[in-house]
Write a sequence for this structure.
């Protein structure tokens, strides 16, 4: 019965003069998921709509993952003409009664177009009366109805009852570009997803130490990024092999500092790539105190290695909360597959939990840091484009 | 060219067998149960190849069912304990079985109240089974024998074992997991008192997804699958004629080349055992060559991680395995390795090198040198 999909925008409506910019970004996201040039997206007084006849459920599901959209509803679009509206509402209620047991209803009319001659309250009464007169075995219940018929009057009129949650947040690309340090664990895909939801156009970087890690763990990263891209749009994943760095740390630095120094290298490499490829920030899945390299001291010492904003959207989250989100976005099952990631083989038995910056800097003097960073990128970078 | 040394996991298909597979898919796709001529032709192919397959172990075609592979064969073999209703509920089994045996008795224990007792122990390079016979009692319904263990290659003397078991009790069923021995070592079921024996095609350069089960007494057999009554009601499901034709061809080739391959593989196995210790310090061979199948060589190298060695070797296009490919998906150490008591600093460095028809002597030195080179490299990183 439906012939249209309506979408309500979230925070974009608060954006005042910048609103056009945000709407533009949203349009790009929508075009990508709709993936059909025949389908036109248009605006009607603050809301976004598209005309569509087939596979509406599938399209609603796709759109529900788009950032910047708060509510998405399949709806029936008709002319804003009172007689038309009356007839269609009756038809709509009858149609709904066919598929499920509906005993009570309520009309919820809203006039975004104030030039429409009948006021919302009056419309509720008129349309309610029509339904009572023409539909059998139904009563009005304004508090807890089986069916709410929304009648949304704009330049056209939209009738709907189902409301699905959208991706929320801000449209992808409306808040700069970020590089997510993707480890293959549970946290980093969630961090990337959350920053994507705040409008950051994200790509990923992943470190490995093949042949000390498996080809399968890179395949796992690819699978994770493919799932993330359902939300974030197509992404690049930069794979960087840091085996030589581990080798030199092992040879020239104190064992207990291995993890911290390696993390500092990962940051420096990421920063270097961010500078070259114009990313505005790095994004990590760190959560305060989760492991030795995520104590507040460690974070400070790691952060000190670079001069680029590091966004850590999970810093205050409990593991269980992170897992819940990972399940929601369907990265969890892949993240828990047990391939060694590049941390586990080289982790020291007793890592420092309160690293001292001077001490670490002193230890790093044994390495040619700049050269190592350059050579590592030069020799090993591989790029994967998500499906 | 790849040096593929993971033949206990699976093998490269023989080109004649592959041609047979494709050819039959193209030309003989009829269902052997169909009444028309195409059905009849398919049935002919089935009968002819069932003969090649049964000849491999000197069985009659009427004593063989075609299965989806080793796992189905082992499950079905153990399932035969059902023949005793509830009168005999004990299975005797070893600690070095394939998961398709272990996981199935775990299921029988849970669902059918079957009791399980282990026999056998590791001693000085072999898996000894002399404690089996005292454990056979009135409640014993079935004994499983791993002819060739898939991880270390431990070999059992089935002839002697079956004689002794049936000497104690004629009623006890004997199931042999023959997957790692079939087509590689001589098996003559007419001389053995085996009730069921599983085997598989893809371990001997045949197509994947097909195997079989030898059944001594088909009239007493309890099927695992029911349906259209194919294979004389013993195993329902439309026969995969192309795979059967290909498997038949595989068996034909295997029976011709078995002795020659056995000798070659034994030579290769010996070469590794002699050469490796010259190149690497602190390596132990698990299992004595005389008490294991020469097709499998298992060894532990001190202070390395076997997965890392495997990745290093794959860069040289050399393929070996860490433990059994089927059990490496589970975390933790398999029972086989626990039984061996390998020292902790050797255990992580345990690898399996397994041979096939395409293995040859000239690769040995190359592989040994690569293993030695990578071992030194890995030790630098892992040793503290």
């Amino acid at each position: 019965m439906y012939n249209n999909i309506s979408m309500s925008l979230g925070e974009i409506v608060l954006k005042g003069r910048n609103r056009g910019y945000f709407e533009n970004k949203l349009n790009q996201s929508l075009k990508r998921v709709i993936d059909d040039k025949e389908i036109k997206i248009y605006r009607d007084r603050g809301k976004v709509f598209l005309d569509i006849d087939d596979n509406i459920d599938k399209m609603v599901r796709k759109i529900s993952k788009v950032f910047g959209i708060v509510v998405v509803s399949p709806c029936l679009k008709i002319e804003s003409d009172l007689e038309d509206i009356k007839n269609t509402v009756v038809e709509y209620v009858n149609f709904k009664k066919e598929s499920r047991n509906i005993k009570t209803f309520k009309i919820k009319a809203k006039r975004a177009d104030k030039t429409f001659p009948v006021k919302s309250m009056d419309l509720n009464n008129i349309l309610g009366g029509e339904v009572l007169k023409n539909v059998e075995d139904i009563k009005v219940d304004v508090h807890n109805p089986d069916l709410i018929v929304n009648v949304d009057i704009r330049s056209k009129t939209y009738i709907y009852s189902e409301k699905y949650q959208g991706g929320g947040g801000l449209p992808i690309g409306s808040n700069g570009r970020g590089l997510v340090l993707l480890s293959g664990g549970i946290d980093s895909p969630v961090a990337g997803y959350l920053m994507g939801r705040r409008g950051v156009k994200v790509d990923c970087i992943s470190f490995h130490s093949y042949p000390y890690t498996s080809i399968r763990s890179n395949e796992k990263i690819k699978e994770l990024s493919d799932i993330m891209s359902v939300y974030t749009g197509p992404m690049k994943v930069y794979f960087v092999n840091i085996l030589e760095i581990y080798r030199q740390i092992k040879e020239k630095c104190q064992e207990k500092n291995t993890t911290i120094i390696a993390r500092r290298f990962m940051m420096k490499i990421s920063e270097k790539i961010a500078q070259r490829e114009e990313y505005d920030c790095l994004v990590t899945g760190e959560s305060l105190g989760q492991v030795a390299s995520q104590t507040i001291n460690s974070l400070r010492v790691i952060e000190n290695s670079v001069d680029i904003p590091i966004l850590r959207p999970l810093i205050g989250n409990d593991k269980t909360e992170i897992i819940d989100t990972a399940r929601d976005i369907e990265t969890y099952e892949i993240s828990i597959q047990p391939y060694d990631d590049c941390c586990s083989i080289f982790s020291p038995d007793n890592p420092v939990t309160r690293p001292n910056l001077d001490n670490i800097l002193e230890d790093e003097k044994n390495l040619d840091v700049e050269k190592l960073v350059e050579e590592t990128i030069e020799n090993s970078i591989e790029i994967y484009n998500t499906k | 060219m790849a040096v593929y040394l993971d033949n206990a996991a699976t093998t490269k298909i023989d080109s004649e067998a592959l041609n047979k597979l494709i050819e039959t898919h193209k030309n003989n796709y009829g269902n052997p149960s169909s009444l028309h001529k195409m059905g009849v032709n398919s049935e002919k192919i089935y009968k002819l190849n069932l003969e090649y397959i049964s000849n491999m172990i000197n069985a009659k075609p009427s004593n063989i069912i075609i299965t989806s592979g080793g796992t189905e064969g082992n499950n079905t073999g153990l399932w035969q304990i059902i023949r005793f209703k509830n009168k005999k509920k004990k299975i005797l089994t070893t600690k070095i079985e394939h998961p398709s045996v272990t996981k199935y008795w775990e299921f029988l224990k849970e669902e059918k109240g079957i009791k399980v007792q282990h026999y056998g122990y590791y001693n000085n390079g072999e898996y000894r089974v002399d404690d089996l016979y005292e454990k056979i009692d009135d409640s014993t319904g079935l004994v499983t024998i791993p002819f060739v263990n898939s991880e270390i290659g431990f070999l059992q003397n089935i002839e002697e074992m079956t004689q002794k078991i049936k000497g104690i009790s004629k009623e006890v069923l004997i199931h042999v997991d023959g997957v790692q021995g079939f087509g590689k070592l001589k098996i003559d079921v007419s001389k053995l008192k085996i009730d069921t024996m599983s085997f598989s095609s893809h371990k001997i350069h045949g197509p994947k997804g097909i195997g079989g089960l030898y059944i001594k007494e088909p009239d007493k057999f309890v099927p695992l699958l029911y349906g259209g009554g194919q294979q004389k009601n013993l195993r329902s499901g439309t026969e995969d004629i192309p795979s059967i034709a290909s498997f038949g061809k595989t068996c034909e080739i295997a029976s011709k080349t078995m002795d020659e391959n056995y000798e070659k593989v034994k030579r290769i196995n010996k070469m590794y055992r002699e050469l490796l210790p010259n190149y690497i310090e602190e390596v132990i061979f698990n299992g004595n060559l005389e008490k294991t199948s020469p097709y499998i060589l298992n060894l532990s190298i001190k202070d390395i991680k076997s997965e890392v060695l495997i990745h290093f070797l794959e860069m040289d296009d050399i393929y070996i395995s860490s433990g059994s490919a089927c059990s490496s998906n589970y975390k933790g150490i398999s029972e086989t390795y626990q039984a061996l008591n390998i020292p902790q600093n050797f255990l992580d460095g345990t690898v399996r090198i397994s041979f096939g028809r395409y293995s040859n002597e000239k690769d040995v030195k190359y592989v040994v040198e690569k293993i030695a080179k990578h071992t030194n490299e890995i030790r630098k990183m892992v040793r503290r």
Q: What stands out?
A: The CA atoms of residues 228 and 236 of chain B lie 5 Å apart. Chain B has two domains: 3-10+258-374, 15-253. The radius of gyration of chain B is 21 Å.
